[in-house]
Amino acid sequence: MDHIFAEGPPATEAYDTTLPAFEAYVEKVEAWFAARGGDYAAIDEEARRHPDPGAVLGFRIALKIAESRRILAALDRPVTLTLLNPVYKETGRIQRREEHPHGENSIRYKAGVLKQLELLNPHLSCQLVVIDDECPDGSGQMAAGILESDFPAEFANGTFRVLMLRDAIDDGDPELPPGLTHKDGANRSVKGGALLFGARKMVGQEVEGLHILVDNDADLSVHPAQLGLLVEAIAAGDAGAVAGSRREDDSVALIGGSRNVRGRLFIKIWQHLLPELATRVTDTNRAFKAFSAEALARILSGIEI
Question: What whole-number distance in Å separates Cα of residue 89 and Cα of residue 137?
């Protein structure tokens, strides 16, 4: 396997996985993976035994994408995936790298990936819902401008949309979490209100087939093409909810430094406080969680800000 490892381009940050060189490498790994019989678990386990984890990082991300695409291509009934993406002070990540030093082109890239995933299977439909959490920098407006200009048909019909939490509060939207206030109020949203509003807004939507809603951050630390891995158990009827994790042996995520240390510390604290969940949910901070609409509808009314 060393030859396929060696062909991988550098992947030291999430932005690297959006570049044409990495996308071409994914196609190569996908063909190689299929020729090897598609035994994802065995191949990934072998890659994890490599003495230099950094040398196989790009390969393991590409392998996950290949397995995700295989899962979605095999769907045998209608499934609608709705990606819920809260944004607050994310104008940097939303822009292209040439427009901002920390740009990931995240909204445009996610929307494009969702369109590509739909091509895998006529049973699959994808939606993107960006929720502006009263961002003072205009993240929601920037996202709306990108979606309207680059995906005009999807923006016009609401497949790709932007919800503004400030407008919803001003208008008294009935789908708002009870008691939610503006940022200067006592019960303000700190991401949670935006996510709950998006979930409450979309969970009752009439769609074709199974509706799966996915909580997702504004960055690309988990590649959106991995969605198939996240929703597999729900689509098979084996689970109502699935929580992605950066902390399992087979996890691959581009995150490091102080954010990684803080995240691990927080997880250790809550695992101590809630030991009954500690072995099943190993990464509460990762916004890569999926719920069937049926399961989510049962719990939404009990979640408060």
Answer: 6
pTM value?
0.89
Specify the amino acid at residue 234.
Answer: I
d(CA 217, CA 214): 10
Burial of 236 (0-12, 13-18, 19+ CB in 10 A): exposed
* CA–CA distance, 270 with 278 (Å, rounded to integer): 8
- The CB density around residue 119, as the number of other CB atoms within 10 Å, is 10
**Sheet (strand 160-164) strand order:** 160-164, 124-132, 79-87, 210-216, 288-292, 241-243
207 Cβ contact partners less than 8 Å away, ≥ 6 residues apart: 80, 82, 125, 293
Distances, alpha carbon 174 to alpha carbons 85, 170, 179, 202, 209, in Å: 20, 11, 11, 13, 26
**pLDDT (tens digit per residue) in 185-242:** 878 888 899 999 999 999 999 998 999 999 998 889 889 999 999 999 999 999 999 9
Question: Is residue 17 within 8 Å of residue 220, measured between CB atoms?
Answer: yes
According to DSSP, residue 127 is labeled: E
In the chain, where the domains are located: 1-73, 78-222
CA 48 and chain centroid, separation:
23
> What residues form DSSP beta bridges with 81?
126, 212
Q: Which residue carries 């590509």 as its tokens?
A: 116
The Cα 142–Cα 147 span in angstroms is 9
Place of tokens 């678990």: 41
Q: How far apart are CA 21 and CA 24, in angstroms?
A: 5
Nearest to 252 by CA among 67, 75, 96: 67
Q: d(Cα 10, Cα 16) in Å, to the nearest integer?
A: 7
